[in-house]
């Protein structure tokens, strides 16, 4: 067992492992969810399951219960940016960067030069350059834009020792059969649904029906649309979304690699296949400053576990090319400077049709 894992009982662990994705999209989802636990040796009723998830949410173990939205599929764009912030001006620079509403997340990371890492989220991709120009003018520091070029994995599941340790319960096939829509833009009704989903589902026996009431929609339409959004990739999954710090995952390392360009398409899926890698992307290099073109994020419940997982990534890399010490690095986060979300309302609204408000 990992050193830093908190004290959860067997029921808690089963829930947290089982339902980080694949929760049923039906009007009364806790009934089939409870049956799935029963089939795996966890005795509970639908009411008991609901009450326990509600308690985990109230105690801060969960960030929320509901859907994970793929913001890129909804509209707009986001990009990762690195910057040098001298120690004697670090706080002042952080304040200037954080003052930009387009900056969604900002972290201090361990690196000899690039110590500030932030995410810019905008409805119009043309805005990225303007925001970076403003930040450079205000801080006097060069920014290094690192947009995602290829995504190999975004699967931030944080599992615990205990029942259902593989996290393999998937009930997303329940509910109505749907077909993806042949359009990219949202209707106004779909935009309203996305914005409600971003905040989480109501923790009630009928969450989709109760969400429908808040946007003046029919419950059947909400269920079918959530199912379709899953099929279209607008939603990554539905389930419990844990606060990974509350689960003991306090060590997060952003490993970065200078992978030979001709091997990225091969190495990417191999690293993404490691279940503890939560994010895996190809990003651009910046000559003379940033030699790395491959990012893989790992999380651990102790320093020892984190180091072992990073070493496992290195071993996988070494199966494909001769990895030297100068070919990679790990940047651990030391402080969260800003974490406000990606302003999905603006991005969704910019990608919404004027007509077609059908429910």
Question: Would you write up a description of this structure?
Answer:
- By secondary structure, this protein is α+β, with helices and mostly antiparallel strands.
- Helices cover 34% and strands 22% of the residues.
- The protein contains twelve helices and eleven strands.
- The chain has helices at 10-18, 30-39, 46-58, 71-74, 90-98, 127-139, 188-198, 207-214, 219-232, 264-272, 303-318, 344-350, and strands at 62-69, 77-83, 103-109, 116-122, 143-146, 150-154, 235-242, 251-257, 277-282, 294-300, 328-339.
- Strands 5-2-4-3-11-8-10-9-6 form a nine-stranded antiparallel sheet. The protein has a two-stranded antiparallel ribbon with strand order 1-7.
- Helix 2 packs across helix 3 and helix 7 runs antiparallel to helix 12.
- The chain is globular, with a radius of gyration of 21 Å.
- The mean pLDDT is 93.
């Amino acid at each position: 067992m990992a050193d830093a894992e908190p004290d959860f009982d067997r029921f808690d662990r089963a829930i947290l492992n089982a339902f980080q994705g694949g929760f049923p999209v039906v009007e009364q989802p806790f009934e089939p969810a409870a049956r799935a636990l029963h089939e795996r040796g966890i005795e509970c009723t639908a009411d008991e399951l609901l009450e326990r998830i509600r308690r985990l949410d109230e105690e801060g173990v969960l960030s929320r219960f509901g859907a994970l939205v793929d913001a890129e599929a909804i509209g707009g764009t986001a990009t990762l940016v690195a910057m040098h912030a001298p120690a004697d001006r670090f706080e002042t620079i952080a304040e200037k960067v954080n003052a930009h509403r387009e900056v969604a997340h900002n972290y201090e990371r361990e690196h000899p030069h690039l110590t500030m890492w932030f995410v810019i989220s905008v409805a119009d991709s043309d805005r990225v350059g303007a925001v970076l120009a403003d930040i450079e003018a205000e801080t006097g520091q060069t920014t290094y834009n690192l947009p995602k070029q290829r995504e190999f994995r975004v699967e931030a599941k944080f599992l615990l020792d205990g029942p259902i340790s593989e996290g393999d319960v998937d009930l997303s096939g329940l509910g109505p059969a749907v077909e993806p829509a042949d359009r990219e833009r949202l209707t106004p009704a779909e935009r309203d649904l996305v914005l409600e989903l971003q905040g989480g589902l109501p923790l009630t026996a009928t969450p989709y029906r109760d969400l429908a009431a808040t946007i003046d929609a029919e419950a059947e339409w909400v269920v079918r649309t959530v199912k379709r959004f899953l099929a279209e990739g607008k939603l990554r999954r539905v389930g419990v979304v844990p606060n990974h710090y509350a689960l003991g995952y306090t060590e997060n390392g952003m490993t970065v690699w200078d992978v030979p360009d001709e091997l990225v398409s091969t190495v990417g899926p191999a690293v993404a296949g490691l279940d503890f890698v939560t994010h895996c992307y190809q990003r651009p290099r910046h000559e003379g400053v940033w030699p790395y073109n491959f990012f893989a994020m790992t999380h651990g419940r102790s320093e020892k576990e984190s180091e072992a997982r990073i070493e496992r990534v290195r071993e996988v890399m070494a199966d494909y090319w001769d990895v030297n010490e100068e070919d990679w690095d790990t940047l651990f986060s030391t402080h969260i400077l800003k974490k406000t979300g990606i302003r999905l309302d603006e991005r969704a609204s910019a990608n919404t049709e004027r007509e077609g408000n059908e429910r």
